[in-house]
Amino acid sequence: MVDAVLAIGCFLSIMVMAVLNHRLEWWVAALAAVSTLPLLWRRRFPLLVSAVTGAGTGALFLTGSMGGIPAASLIATYGLASLSPPARMLAGVLCTIAGFASAAVLQHHQPLSYGPTAAAFVVAYALGAGARARRDRIAVLEERARRLAAFLTRTLR
Predict the structure, then answer these.
(1) Which backbone phi and psi does 40 adopt, to 5 degrees?
(2) CA separation for the pair 10, 30 (Å, rounded)
(3) Which of 23, 52, 83, 138 could, after both became Cys, cross-link 46 (CB 3.0–4.6 A)?
(4) Start-to-end CA span in the chain (Å)
(5) Cα gap 69→113, rounded to integer Å
(6) Closest C-alpha among 138, 50, 135, 117 to residue 90
(7) What is the rounded distance in angstroms from the CA atom of residue 131 to the CA atom of residue 137?
(8) 19-23, 34-38, 59-63, 110-114: which has the minimum mean pLDDT?
(9) Helix (H) and strand (E) counts in the chain
(10) Cβ neighbours of residue 132 under 8 Å, at least 6 residues apart?
(11) Using CA atoms, how far apart are residues 76 and 97, in angstroms rounded to an integer?
């Protein structure tokens, strides 16, 4: 349910920006759907969702239809950092960096002009990695508690 609300919210934010920028066309709606609909599966396929969402967001950006913060890509990045094994996280980070570099070159922007957006991606990644570390720490503590309880049960008999 939460993922559906996130996907709908991200889609609507893209469409509102398209209306405000006078760019509301059928292909903008299609690209918005491509970049937001995968959020429904972000917990099951975090790397694939991150890649598809990033591609859709990149296409919107390159066509001048993406305004504001790329919320869907940030949510996908959080999910990638939170749910993927290290090798997939690294692949996702490298693809994100490559996407930023490609956009800078294709749009003839200075790489530093992407600083605030890049910082948002770093924060999303850090929050996801923190959530993953917290879950791992809780699992270790629960296992220790289970072993201690079993030990005490055997010892006190």
Answers:
(1) -65, -25
(2) 13
(3) 83
(4) 47
(5) 13
(6) 50
(7) 10
(8) 110-114
(9) 6, 0
(10) 81, 82, 83
(11) 14
pTM: 0.85
Phi–psi pair at 24, nearest 5 degrees: -75, 100
- Which residue did the predictor score with more confidence, 141 or 108? 141
> How many other C-beta atoms can be found within 10 angstroms of the C-beta atom of residue 84?
19
Q: Which residue has the tokens 């094994």?
A: 85
**Residue 135, C-beta contacts closer than 8 angstroms, at least 6 positions apart:** none
Say how many C-beta atoms besides its own lie within 10 A of residue 90's C-beta: 11
Segment holding 95, helix H or strand E: helix 86-106
- What's the Cα-to-Cα distance from 61 to each of 23, 64, 105, 111, 143, rounded to whole Å? 12, 5, 13, 15, 46
Question: Distance between CA 74 and CA 111 in Å, rounded?
Answer: 19
Look up tokens 């948002």; give the residue.
120
- Of 92, 91, 88, 75, the residue nearest 127 (C-alpha): 75
CA angle 61–85–1, rounded 5-degree value: 60
pLDDT for 54-88, tens place per residue?
888 888 888 877 777 889 999 999 999 999 988 88
